[in-house]
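Hi R.,

Here's the chain you asked about this morning:
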Amino acid sequence: MARQPTQPASAPKKKMAAAEIRQGIDRIQKRLDEVAAFNVDNLREEFPPELKALSTAVSRSLEKTFGEDTNDYKRFALAANLQWFPGFFIAGQHTPLSDYRNGIANNIRRSKALLAEAIRTLEEDLEETAGAQPSKDDEKASPQKAHYKQVFVVHGRDEGAREMVARFLEQIDLHPVILHERPNKGRTIIAKLREEADDVGFAVVLLTPDDHGGIAGKETSLRARQNVVFELGFFIGALGPDRVAAMTRGEVEKPSDFDGVVYIPLQADWKMQLVRELIAAGYHVDWNKVMR
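And the predicted structure, written out as tokens:
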């Protein structure tokens, strides 16, 4: 009796440094956002090329993150199967486009669940490596503190925007630092800023249309308060432009000479954009809490 060929064993779990895990989380989250944004109602053909391209991107991201032929890759590989095929064909009968839409919609729901689980797996791996000695790669990727919990929130008169951002940071288990809520301890404003900035790794600056300003003798425009613009510049100098996000509301003038700062409109997807910047800055964020 001929011996049956044995299946090749899966490769062991890919060992990753903390910086690699964070990059993997960000990479897969981008694919999750793209899958979630795909609108099946816009399908006008059975096998659209954009869906095939998206499937390829998901597959490559999973392979790059987990490694080819690893158990983790095989667990989540089905997330890349977005296309749908009829279970059977009847000669001379065409499958309605609505069936393709329904089938692809189901595959998208499955893909979103698998990608979210992949992110959760990476987050658990990141927690397990948190107490380990940082590698040279981690030190290069994050020369400052590896993990932060506090985020400075600079605001003007728009209390609604301030509360919305602060409550979201609390939702994802981060601690918003708001200057006027901190005790003065006899300190000047600039002294408070300097000392409070020592314990944060990121600043969110809310540029809301609170004041009018412009060139003397010409028409004015809506702009943020002067203290907000000053603190934007302060945190760019204290933390670096890659650790500052300026969030804008409405038609507000953007300060000049602040190259490198990320501007995030307070619109539908502002939470996703902010979390990406926080992760890039070394913060640990549970994507399940972001999406709830």
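Confidence is low (pLDDT under 50) at residues 4-8, 136-147.

Let me know if you need anything else.
M.
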